[in-house]
């Protein structure tokens, strides 16, 4: 009792924030509060991890905003976020010694490199007599808890998701603590802390983030606003609207989930409650839950299989005769392929740091199959430009499209970018928004301007090869080339 009133008399517990940048439903934070010890909240930024991936540029932008919001939230409780910079293991160990921590706690991460780092930190701290406690703050189910009857990991989504849900309800989310007994840092620990600006997460010269700033309100409050918008305006109709890239038809919660500004449990229960109270037809809720299930499945794959962003899940694809074509890759990256729906997707990504799922599938298929460029090139471009760039979902999505992944789309299914546009953007609204130089073309030719009559092009001020490119490849020829490459692969297997 006396100790609680005078927390400085006790050694502190460190809450190490990572991809869980929120106060509500944060098991590591709740554990620290219930320990009765004074609390220190830290984040460690390692610009160049020895193992694992450095953050891409768009994710760094989000991280800056998200850390600022987390600090603000902690300040409203009377404390602050301590920012540290450097290799995670050395930095956490040095800081734990400087504050004489009794315990360090965190929510778990799942890539092989992250798990290796966390395991080595845990042993090093425990060897010095510091307790370590770890929790699940990121997923509905831990990846190792869902297995086949033989105890093996799943490789097919349907079977995985059925098994994951069988007799299982996610833990209900916990509210944010209404107070935290913050520890006052001794001088030797204060000298280790850095300012947010020192992390150099934001772009300058040039500052390309204007579109990101316009699009997103980062952090935990932003996540809650986005969730409320989704529940009020999008969930009822989700199963139908989720495939139309011009519509506000999905949750746009992916970057918040990526950085843990919201937990999947909070989303799960909020969607369930709204569906019940508003009598929303089950198909919409179930479709949305299935998408959260794909996220769980991607983490299951990340946990159980080799580095997903480097290695073909199906090793047969190692022999794929990928082309090296810097010019075509650049045309794809810049949204100048001459296929309007592909260019719209790539420009949405460049401007906002996000791309609609349908467009992600179309642009990925175009790079891999029409241009025959290695899916890893596309994965790394997405990694650098997406605010939701995710260790599990990004490589799993790319391998799914490539056909090299678990439960993937068959390689021979090659999206026709014109038909995809006509089907999912029938009125051309998506193309008009992101490829304004085509905006005056009529619906009938907006997805294939090279087929428009000269008078139509002139009336719309489109000069092919000048104001908008000719297609970088011919669809039928590119399709044949991709199928031939795949046949050779099968022949060689
Ligand atoms: P919603 O439709 O509202 O879905 C809700 C949540 O479910 C999403 O926020 C996401 O966490 C999860 N989800 C939805 N679809 C998928 C899926 N196919 N696979 C795994 N999880 C899913 N998602 C990322 O979060 N980060 C990535 O880096 C990423 N890269 C991708 C790359 C490719 C080539 C492809 C085809 C898909 C990728 N996805 C990625 C999956 C998906 O496109 C996005 O999760 C989705 O578009 C995010 O928008 P939303 O939040 O509005 O989704």
TrEMBL record:
Boundaries of every Photolyase/cryptochrome alpha/beta domain copy: 11-140
GO terms for biological process, alphabetical: photoreactive repair; response to light stimulus
Reaction(s) catalysed by this chain's protein: cyclobutadipyrimidine (in DNA) = 2 pyrimidine residues (in DNA)
Name by which UniProt lists this protein: Deoxyribodipyrimidine photo-lyase
EC id: 4.1.99.3
Keywords from the UniProt entry: Chromophore, FAD, Flavoprotein, Lyase
Family to which the UniProt record says this protein belongs: Belongs to the DNA photolyase family.
Organism: Trinickia soli
Residues at which FAD binds: 238, 250-254, 288, 388-390
InterPro entries registered for this protein in UniProt: Crypto/Photolyase_FAD-like_sf, Crypto/Photolyase_N_sf, Cryptochr/Photolyase_FAD-bd, Cryptochrome/DNA_photolyase_1, DNA_photolyase_1_CS_C, DNA_photolyase_N, Rossmann-like_a/b/a_fold
């Amino acid at each position: 009792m006396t100790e609680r009133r005078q927390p400085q008399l006790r050694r502190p517990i460190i809450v190490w924030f990572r991809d869980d940048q929120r106060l509500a439903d944060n098991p590591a934070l709740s554990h620290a509060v219930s320990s009765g010890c004074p609390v220190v909240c830290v984040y460690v930024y390692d610009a160049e991890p020895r193992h694992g991936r450095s953050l891409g540029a768009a994710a760094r932008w989000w991280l800056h905003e998200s850390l600022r919001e987390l600090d603000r939230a902690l300040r409203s409780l009377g404390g602050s976020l301590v920012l540290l910079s450097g290799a995670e293991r050395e930095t956490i160990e040095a800081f734990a010694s400087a504050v004489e921590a009794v315990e360090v706690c965190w929510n778990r991460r799942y890539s092989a490199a992250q798990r290796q780092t966390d395991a080595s930190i845990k042993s090093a701290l425990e060897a010095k007599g510091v307790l370590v406690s770890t929790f699940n703050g990121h997923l509905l189910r831990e990846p190792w808890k869902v297995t086949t009857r033989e105890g093996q990991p799943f490789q097919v989504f349907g079977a995985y998701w059925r098994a994951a849900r069988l007799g299982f309800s996610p833990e209900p989310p916990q509210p944010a603590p209404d107070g935290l007994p913050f520890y006052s840092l001794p001088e030797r620990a204060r000298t280790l802390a850095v300012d947010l600006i020192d992390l150099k997460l934001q772009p300058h010269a040039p500052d390309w983030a204007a579109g990101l700033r316009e699009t997103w309100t980062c952090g935990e409050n932003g996540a809650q606003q986005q969730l409320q918008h989704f529940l009020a305006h999008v969930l009822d109709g989700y199963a139908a609207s989720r495939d139309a890239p011009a519509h506000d038809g999905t949750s746009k919660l992916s970057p918040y989930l990526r950085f843990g500004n919201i937990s999947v449990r909070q989303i799960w229960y909020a969607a369930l409650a709204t569906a019940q109270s508003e009598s929303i037809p089950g198909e919409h809720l179930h479709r949305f839950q299935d998408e959260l299930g794909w996220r769980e499945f991607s983490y299951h794959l990340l946990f159980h299989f080799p580095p997903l962003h480097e290695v073909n899940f199906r090793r047969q694809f190692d022999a794929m005769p990928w082309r090296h074509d810097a010019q075509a890759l650049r045309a794809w990256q810049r949204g100048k392929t001459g296929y309007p729906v592909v260019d719209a997707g790539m420009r949405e990504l460049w401007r906002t740091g996000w791309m609609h799922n349908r467009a992600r599938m179309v642009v990925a298929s175009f790079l891999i199959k029409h241009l025959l460029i290695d899916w890893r090139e596309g994965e790394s471009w997405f990694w650098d430009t997406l605010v939701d760039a995710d260790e599990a979902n990004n490589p799993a999505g790319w391998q799914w499209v490539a056909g090299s992944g678990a439960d993937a789309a068959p390689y021979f299914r090659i999206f026709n970018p014109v038909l995809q546009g006509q089907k999912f953007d029938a009125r051309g609204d998506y193309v008009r928004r992101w490829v304004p130089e085509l905006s005056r073309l009529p619906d009938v030719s907006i997805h294939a301007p090279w087929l428009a009559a000269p008078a139509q092009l002139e009336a719309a001020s489109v000069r092919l090869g000048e104001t908008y490119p000719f297609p970088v490849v011919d669809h039928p020829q590119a399709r044949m080339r991709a199928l031939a490459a795949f046949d050779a692969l099968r022949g060689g297997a």
